[in-house]
Amino acid sequence: MISDADYFMIVPSEEPLDLPSVFGNCNPVYIEIGSGKGEFISGYPVFHPDWNFIGFEVRGKRIRNCLKKLDPVVNPNVRLAEVKVDANISKILLPESISGAYIQHPDPWPKKRHFRRRLIQQDLLNSLATILKPGALLQVSTDHQEYANWIVEEFLANPFFESIYDNPMQEQPILDEHIVTWFEREQKQLGYSPYYMMYKRV
Questions:
Q1: Is this prediction's pTM over 0.85?
Q2: Where are the chain's structural domains?
Q3: Which residues are catalytic?
Q4: pLDDT tens figures, 141-157
């Protein structure tokens, strides 16, 4: 009997992923960077059964939390990879192979000496621009205002992305099927409101 882990887990090799082989079809592929406790990667794909999704998460404990929320019958279009996402993502995924990306509440690393650890940096954006198809959308959310400003500045400095809104930081959810993650719920209870951003690969 195949376990849920065997069904859902992808183990990247030295070669870029063969996505049609991974999913058994040629449907468009979307990625979530940092799947956390798994609310988004288990919930959002249900609304889009004709899309495939890969959730990337660096922590094994969070992978296990995601697996608890996934079911092969309900989520046949989802896979997980225990990988730290950085500029090397362009070695895992082929150029222009990804139709969209989602980043929900990345760690803001609020202390200045830790800014270099922040996910949103130019080298990552350049790699994402490589793997995303032209016109693909990249959605980012954060409840940390200073980090939201940082994200906007990083995208402004990058020639491969443009905001689809005149005001990049939206205070209302952008996605029609908004999934409230554990991190969003916790921060709202503490009085922090999220900012939602959407950028297009140009």
A1: yes
A2: 4-201
A3: 107
A4: 999 999 999 999 999 99
